[in-house]
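Weekly puzzle thread! Below is a chain. First person to post its structure in token form gets bragging rights.
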Amino acid sequence: MTSRRSWRDGHGRGVRVGVLPGLFVAAVVLAACQLPAHLGVPTTVEKIEGTCDTSAVVEVGASLPLSGRLAATGRAELTGLELAVEHVNQSGGVLTSHRCLELMYKDDRSDPSVDNQALLDLVNQERVSLVVGPFLALSDSADRAHLGALGVTADSFSSVEETFEPRSYPYTFPMSASISSQAQILANDVRTHDWQQVTVVSSGSLASTEGVSVFKADTRGTRIHVTTESQSVDSPASASKVLAAVRSTHPDALVVFDDGSTLTPVLAVRRAIGLSLPVIASIGGNTPELPASDLLGVEIVVPTALEVTHSTAPGLTTFRAQVLHALHRDRLQAALTPYAQAYDAIAMFAGAVSGVNADDPGSLRTYLENANYQGILGSYNFTSGSHAGLDVSQESLVPLDTLSNGVFIRPTVRGSNH
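Winning reply:
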């Protein structure tokens, strides 16, 4: 059994240190010396508070992009995790013994190789009962096989297709929509508009590449001609080159598959060069923070729960207020998606643990595959044959310029594509 101690930083959080038997420590240190220096991934442990039994814990671990190009999303996910853990612990914890959830997290620095090491360490060294995060390590084919065999329950924010397949990822439960379902929605929208010439651009990530392939397959055999830009877009410079080529071919629309680094430069350059080309996009949980004028003529795939009419649903209103209070803000400039996605991950895990009074992956898998979870973002669908997460019925295309304080306000007059 590993004994542990921790100290607190200036934010009331702690960095955990493992105290292990001497020979085992030596083996760990020797192995660590063989790793590249940039893979050192410190662990931060949240302070435990609540009406739960603070002397006993169920540990949950997260690997998040808290710095680097995806930092805004990673910080939003961390806030969602913290809010959910706080709610569970203030409500008496989990199991009949009322154990507290203990949140520990690592900054993967938006680097897939660091994310891979962080995930492995959370499972093999910290011995968490749940691992959660965007699973950036999936972008490396050498890492994908063992990520499906971590041996603990995992809540993934990734849209990579393989993670929705229980045969490869038996204990992974996606808190997102698969990239194939998102590509299907975009292909249907192109058909509805009767666009016949479309150009597809992407970030070059695994999920976006899969999205391009599915989109092309969904439009094959129709009158739609799809041109795929070979250059990945992840900066204003690459966006400028790609949009210059796009402008010369005069397509009817631009289709974007983004993992957080593509849509923002595309829209900024689009406006700068005066291009009024319609844009539809799959962007996961990331929404660009740009002037409203940049967002005109842009539609993105979002969870249906975040699309509201005249008033926001009470549960969503309450959650948004909790997020704003935690951030010390009065408004949100981006969607609630990453906050709610992370909150749902912890809430679903806690409900399953208490439902079976156990935290082992086998018991939790059986429970989750027989009792779909209704979360903030929608109903997460899991069966023994498919861990579908948010399926097509839970997703919608919405105008990006209708984003208001974290939700998407449905226009009074809908376009023909809705």
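Puzzle host: Confirmed. Bonus trivia for everyone else. Residues 1-38, 414-418 have pLDDT under 50 and may be disordered.
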